[in-house]
Amino acid sequence: MKSRQERIGDFTAPEVAEHLVAMALAHAKRVQARPEGRPLLVLERPVEGEWFTQWGDPLSDLPRGRRLLQAFTAKAAKTGLTKDKIDAWCNAASLYVLPWRAAAYDTLTALAHRLGLLPVAAEAVVLALRSAVARRADANAETTLSGAAGLSRTNIAGIATEVAQPIDRASLEEALATGLCEPVDFDRPLQAAGFHEGVNVRPGHITAGLPAPRPVLTGRVADAIQRGQSVLVTGPSGIGKSAVRWTAAYVTRHVLWYRIRRLQADDAVPLVRLARALQPSTRSPVGFVVDGIGIGAAEAWDIPYRELAPIPGVLLLGSVRSEHLLPLRSRVDCTQIEVTLDEEVAEQIHAGLSATGTTAAAHWREAYDAANGLTLEFTHLLTCGRRLSDVLSEQVERRVAEGRQTEIEILARISIAHQWGADLSVRALQQQLSLGDTDLRTALSRLADEHLVHERRGLLSGLHRLRSAHLADAVHAIPPPILDETVLAVMRMLADSQLQPFIAGVLTEHPALDPVVLDQIVVELGRRPSVKATTGVLQALRLVDVNRTAADWLRTLDRHRIPPALRRTSLQFALVDGDLLPQLKPEIAAAITEIRAADTSGSPLRDALVERLGKVAICLLLS
Question: DSSP 3-state assignment of 230?
């Protein structure tokens, strides 16, 4: 069997001829063992556009002038095979093209039908069968042909029945039916127009071969997965974390991957039930992918890590911006792999884009120097020849000039929401802007056609957070709209569960909005007095206070020029009482003294909210 990624294209006749010659030579050595059956070469991709779909048809049935036969005959003769042996091999051997997607789908469908299972439940049976095949392949590597082990129909039926009987179907349905998570689909390529203009990378993009390869980083993530470790891919927005994460998941498809789409504290139980119902093992692991862990959504990683990581055979793979690492309590227990754009990676990306004809740039250096270290900006410059922010600004300015105010209002709200981890309900947006169905549909269609917004299941978002940040800057560059007014408009539309990440994101990047946001929080908690909204808001304010304190400490350490290797120790000394050690370097002692003098107790933002609401009101909201 020979596999081949779709992005590489079809097999060539000379390549297949090489495989056939290798098989013929190996078969000649095994004749004495009298192997049963006939030799068969299974290919994942067609041969120069030709699909061999007739099982068992010998090579000798091909027309004599066929390029594949000519290539095989020539290569076989060079190895010393006689004409009689070549003819005998052509009469015995056959080709069959079986794409991975078709094999996976047909296997899953057949098992689900035969055993009366949902497709997701049949996945566990597929994993068990694959594990059985892998064990026999490992054993066969150390034995003779006559002693090789295989799987009979009886073996297959026994394994399938054994695995299917104890499957908890209710647990499987619970997590999937509520939209908590979904199986990762690597089977269907996703050809996205304008991919390099800035979109969130999805599994189908990897299958289609759209992202430029980053083999070193992907290999490090895949190696950690193979070791059974939980992995966090880190780096700034737009650096390419999603591409690395999904590519690593793609190359480790022996893992049954699920994508967690949303997660709150009360979602942990169905997630654990799903994981256990799939019967994971080290040979048939189950993995969960967590995308875009934001500053206000640390539980989206900490909860699955706490509940799932202890289960044997369960893996976790997530991505988080570097500046949002601090609130993750479990970060020290995970393998952290940082994504960066250096000259070597830039050259690799340029070579990959050049090979597919995606860029006409003769060299990568100019784009690299202008990209500010961001992969998204770098690839946009290579493929489009212009900065992403310039293109988006022109799209906004054209709408202003043409008086398309509805689209400007929609863009303002969606870009601000998506920039800080939230999406907006289509109906909530429609109600707030007082738009009819026709007007809203027209506006959203035009925005979607230019890759400015994305709709999924009635929710609106941007295509990438960095792209949304550029759009938000462009829309608010010349008022109206005004930034604080848009922030308040978005807060009025958010679900309770989205208040935490949004408020944390806004206040982290815009401290000047503290009074405006705090006042609106009072309004929102009065309008929707729920425990979920209140605890989410309090947690967001605590996280912002922690981040601001950490930023102050970093500035102090920078100001006193404390080397990175000594910073953790310096902070540890600063956070404990006691006299300074006399042997400390003067700059370290000065930094410690300054940090101690700063008032880091309490939570200023939470205190300010309590002052606005009153302690009695807070207690009532939490009761």
Answer: coil
Amino acid at 386: R
CA gap 553, 567 in Å, rounded:
10
Cis peptide before 511 (omega within 30 of 0): no
State the Cα–Cα distance between residues 612 and 448, nearest whole angstrom.
Answer: 41
Task: Identify the burial level of 525 via C-beta atoms within 10 angstroms of its C-beta, where 0-12 means exposed, 13-18 middle and 19 or more buried.
Answer: buried
What CATH number matches the domain at 177-338, 3.10.450, 3.10.530, 3.40.50, 2.30.29? 3.40.50
Taking alpha carbons only, the member of 510, 533, 551, 554 closest to residue 609 is 533
Q: What percentage of the chain exceeds 90 in pLDDT?
A: 15
Neighbours of 197 (CB within 10 A): 20
Separation CA 509–CA 469 (nearest Å): 11
SS3 277: helix
Q: Distance (Å, rounded) from C-alpha 140 to C-alpha 414? A: 57
Which helix (H) or strand (E) element contains residue 260? strand 256-260
Beta strands in 25-109 (DSSP E): 40-43, 94-97
Q: What is the pLDDT of residues 491-533, one digit of tens each?
A: 999 988 889 889 988 998 899 999 999 999 999 988 888 888 8
Greatest CA separation for the chain = 96
Residue 120: is it exposed, middle or buried by C-beta count within 10 angstroms (0-12/13-18/19+)? buried
Does residue 176 register a pLDDT over 80?
no
59, 115 contact by CB (below 8 A): no
Rounded CA separation 154/324 (Å): 53
Residues 333 and 305 sit within 8 Å (Cβ to Cβ)? yes
| Alpha helical stretches, state H, 356-462 | 365-370, 375-384, 388-401, 405-419, 426-433, 437-449
Q: Are strands 181-183 and 256-260 parallel, antiparallel or unpaired?
A: antiparallel
Name residue, tokens 């930023």.
Answer: 551
Q: In this structure, what token pair is assigned to residue 369?
A: 């120097």
Mean pLDDT over residues 292-306, rounded?
70
Residue 381 pLDDT > 80? yes
Q: pTM for the full model?
A: 0.67
Measured in degrees and rounded to the nearest 5, phi and psi for residue 472 equal -60, -40
- Identify the band that residue 7 occupies on the pLDDT scale cut at 50, 70 and 90: low
- Residue 204, C-beta contacts closer than 8 angstroms, at least 6 positions apart: 185, 186, 188, 189, 190
| pLDDT for the residue 297 | 60
Sign of the alpha-carbon dihedral angle for 61, 65, 67, 71 = positive
Dig out the tokens for 378 from the structure. Answer: 């770098």
Domain borders along the chain are: 6-98, 101-167, 177-338, 343-386, 387-493, 495-623
The DSSP secondary structure of 497-554, one letter per residue, reads HHHHHHHHHHHHH-GGGHHHHHHHHHHHHHHS--HHHHHHHHHHHHHHHHHHHHHHHH
Residue owning tokens 């390419």: 240
User: What confidence score (pLDDT) does residue 390 get?
Assistant: 84
> Token digits for 511?
């401290």
| Phi-psi map region of 95: left, alpha, beta (phi>0 left; psi -120 to 50 alpha) | beta
**pLDDT at 268 > cutoff 80:** no
Give the CATH number of domain 387-493: 1.10.10
- Distance between start and end Cα atoms, the chain: 63
Bond preceding residue 480 cis, omega within 30 of 0: yes
